[in-house]
Model the fold of this input.
Amino acid sequence: MGASLGSKATMSEINMTPLIDIVLVVLIIMMVSIPVELEQMGVKVPGPPPPTPPTMPEDAPEQLVIAVYQDGTFGLNRRLMAREKMLYEVTRRLVPLQKKNVFIDAHLEVPFSLVVEMMDLAKAAGAEKVGLAKVKDSGPLAATSVDQGAAPRGLQRGTPKPVGAMSTPKADKALQPLLATLEGCYYKELGANPQLSGTVNYKVDVYPDGSVVSVTVGHSTLDNDTVESCSVQALSELMKFEPLGGPDKTAAILYPILYSPG
Done:
């Protein structure tokens, strides 16, 4: 009986990896070389658009820009105005804004002390963030109008700054009914001192049930004890808040008030 040799030859599978590698290399070479060849033939091949750098919006409705011009004058959103009116306008305009940001746009040749002064003014007016606009060789955008008037006679509330279990809208809501009373405290002294002006920060501490713990005077440029004492008494006796939501909840609010003789 003869020995039987295998009647079926074993067929090994083809290794496709080298073939795939070669195809990928050829594809990459074609992707690189075809645009170059087309450019040489005068065919323009559009590439990806360059990234657009973020820029400060110039005409956004919720954007405040204080300009410091080369001659030392100031402008708010391209409207020239005096320092005193600037503080009033920035304070007033920041109150309803969701993002309370202010940009300082200064000419290259102005003293840096003027830039710092406007940064401090923006902070005093209630700005949460103060940034410097990108410096331009031509300086800030030219003013389109001039503000001739002074700040209106009376007081202007700034943006409340609450800490603890209190939101800014609720803090502002509690103050609004008392503005006329606070203005009365100011008018009593304004008759004797027609130039009386400045800003006072009143600090109000609140119990969990919404009652007022205490009212104190923080930083003040008004320098008038009579107005400040009258206002502290009014805030202590008349101010009402909603309950804060729990026996362990407390709050403290800083209320900036700007006084102007008009």
